[in-house]
Amino acid sequence: MRVATALMRVRKPQNESDVPFQEVLPLRLKNHVSGKTDKTSDVACLQEMTVLFSCLKTNDFNESLCAKEVGNFQQCYKGYLGKKSAKKETSGKGVLVAGKDLNYKQLNKVLKKYPTSSQNY
């Protein structure tokens, strides 16, 4: 008997039409984007670094025995620095490149061209 009464007390799901919508903030996009999360935690040459550390560990951290791995890591890192400087140079010029990898400054330029409202909030 008690089990039946406990099962009857189950809460029913709420009906969506019974809950009124309350607008807390205006339903439009802002005209700017903050640059807080633009800092990427991109790790350069992770695969080469792990191979290098495993080689150093097996050879008791003797770099002369891991010359090939050190060279591969340095070559990869030079390539990474070249790509990073090229990306920084194009973003510094303000060139808008079509794609999904816009930084916050480029995105703010696009949003200034097409504002959503005349208010600043």
Automatic annotation (TrEMBL):
One GO cellular component term noted in the UniProt record for this chain: nucleoplasm
Record key words, sorted: Disulfide bond
A matching Pfam family: CHCH
Stretches assigned to the CHCH domain: 45-78
GO BP terms in the entry: mitochondrial translation
GO molecular function, one term: RNA binding
Protein name, per record: CHCH domain-containing protein
Lineage, highest ranks first: Eukaryota, Metazoa, Ecdysozoa, Arthropoda, Hexapoda
